[in-house]
Design brief:
This protein is mainly alpha-helical. The protein has one domain. It has seven helices and two strands. Strands 1-2 form a two-stranded antiparallel sheet. The chain is globular.
């Protein structure tokens, strides 16, 4: 399942005669799960070129983090996919975010370490893109309540 409405190659633009966009990042180009994570983590619709030079590296390291230990492994080190975020990135976006926010190792993920709670807010907000919005606005209100509850859980408070 691809989270983005368009293929990765459709995001980007030419800058000084050179195409720049997520498909030019080696960690994303041929990896659907990494692209899903990147798409949730940054609004490529609004800005086709990510202004954070470390973004691709943080996505790659997050993909190679062992969720049982919180340790990120270098490329080439064998790591069973079931120990990483990869299986969760096959879920629907909202399910992925709920799973991540409930996971005890979320603070060990390189994207969290790099962007902090702002990353959590971004992936939560972007996970609702493409979701059905109820006409009565109750779904949006429920989403805000869920976000508050999950952020409280992340910070150690319980509601």
């Amino acid at each position: 399942m691809r989270y983005s409405a368009k293929p990765i190659e459709d995001y980007g633009r030419f800058v000084d005669g050179e195409f720049r966009g997520p498909s030019t990042l080696p960690a994303l180009k041929h990896d659907l799960e990494a692209w899903n994570l990147a798409y949730l983590s940054f609004n490529f619709d609004a800005k086709p070129v990510c202004p954070f030079p470390e973004f691709g590296h943080l996505v790659a390291m997050t993909m190679r983090t062992d969720l049982t230990t919180g340790i990120s492994h270098p490329a080439g080190v064998p790591l069973p996919r079931q120990l990483t975020v990869r299986p969760f990135l096959r879920q629907r976006p909202r399910e992925f975010v709920s799973t991540m926010l409930a996971h005890p190792m979320v603070r060990n993920l390189p994207l969290f370490k790099g962007f902090g709670e702002d990353w959590i807010k971004v992936i939560f907000e972007r996970s609702w893109i493409g979701g059905e919005v109820a006409d009565d606005g109750l779904e949006e209100e429920a989403g805000l309540l869920e976000m508050r509850r999950l952020m409280d859980r992340l910070s150690g408070q319980v509601r």
